[in-house]
Amino acid sequence: MDTQSLRLFVLASETLNISAAGRTLGMAPAVASTRIAKLERLLGAELLHRSTRKISLSSEGQDFLPYAREMIAQEEAALAALGQGQSKISGTLRFAAPSTFAHMYIAPLLPKFMDAYPDLTLDMYLSDAQFDLIEGSYDLALRNAVLESSSLTARKLADDTRILCASPAYLEEYGTPIKPDDLKPHRVIAFRNLEPRHLISKDGTRAELDPKQSAHRLILNDGLTQKRATLDGAGISVNSRWLVHEEIASGALIHVLSDYKIVNQPALWLIYPKSNVVSAKVRVFMDFLVAHIGKAPVWAEG
C-alpha cells in the first residue's frame, strides 16, 4: 500500500481539507483528490465524505485512521533502522490534556519545545472533562487517572497525589475535622463525577469520603475554579498536590486530615493508541515532558 497516500489521508482527516493536505505533501489539488479516491477503491470503503462545502471523516475512515498512522510509523521506523529516515521531526501532533495542568506546567514549556522542533505542528485539545483518545483521533494524551482501555499504551509522567484542603478562614469559621466522620456536616467542594474517596490512616484505619453524603455540596468540573473556590473559603476539597503545593507551602491552604491518605491514588499518564511502533513525533514530545516535568516534579514532597 502506498504510504504517501496514507500520509495524505491522515493529513486530510486532521485538516478536513484534501487540497490543503495535498499542498503540504507537494501535490496539486487534483492529484490529491485522485490519490484519495484510488486509496478508497483499493480498500473498498469511502474514507472521507465529500460535499461542495466540506469533507468529514466517515465511520470507515475513523476505523482505518489508527492503522494508517501505524503503517506510516512502521515505515519511518524501518527507514530509521537503515539510517535512511528523516533527520527532522515534522507533521502534526494532536495532543489532549487536562486544561488546568496544561496551563500550569505544559504551556510555559511550549516555546522551548517548538524551538527544538520547528517543523512540527502541535495541535492541542485542552479540557478537564473526560475524552476518548481513539474517537478523537489524538496521537497522545495526558490523563490523571488509572489506565483502563486495553487498546491504549501508557508511559508514567509522575505521581498524582490527592489531598484534602481548606482555607484557614473556612476552618476558623466551621472548625477543623479531626477524623473522616467529622466531614459530614462540612461544606464539600466536589468534582463533577462525585466520586467517593477511600481513606486510610497511618495506623491502618479505613474510612470513606462520599460527597453525596455531605450536608452541603458545591459541584464543579474545572480544577482552577475548584482551587479558587477553596481559597475563598467555599469549603473543603480534594486537590492534586501539583495544583495546590504552592498554596500549602505558603499557608494559603491547609492540608486537612493529614494523618489520612487517599487510597488508590491515580497517576499522570501519557497515553497513546497501542502500536508496535511509537512515531517519532510522539516519542520526542513524551521524552520532552518526562525530562522537564516528570523526572523531578516541583510539587513532590521533600
Q: Predict the CATH topology of the largest domain.
A: D-Maltodextrin-Binding Protein, domain 2
Strand and helix order: HHHEEHEHHEEEEHEEEEHEHEEEH
Using only CA atoms, what is the Rg? 24 Å
Which class of the largest domain in CATH terms? Alpha Beta
Distance between the termini: 54 Å
Could you give the order of strands across the largest sheet? Answer: 4-3-5-15-6
The chain-level structural class is alpha/beta
Mean pLDDT rating: 85
Task: Describe this structure as you would to a colleague.
- It is a single chain.
- By secondary structure, the protein is α/β, with parallel strands linked by helices.
- The chain folds into three domains: 1-85, Winged helix-like DNA-binding domain superfamily/Winged helix DNA-binding domain (Arc Repressor Mutant, subunit A), CATH 1.10.10.10; 87-160 and 266-302, Periplasmic binding protein-like II (D-Maltodextrin-Binding Protein, domain 2); 162-262, D-Maltodextrin-Binding Protein, domain 2.
- The protein is 38% helix and 25% strand.
- It is built from ten helices and 15 strands.
- The strands form four sheets. A five-stranded mixed beta sheet has the order 4-3-5-15-6. A five-stranded mixed beta sheet has the order 11-8-12-7-13. It has a three-stranded antiparallel beta sheet with strand order 10-9-14, with no helix packed on it.
- A hairpin with a 4-residue loop joins β9 (197-201) and β10 (206-209).
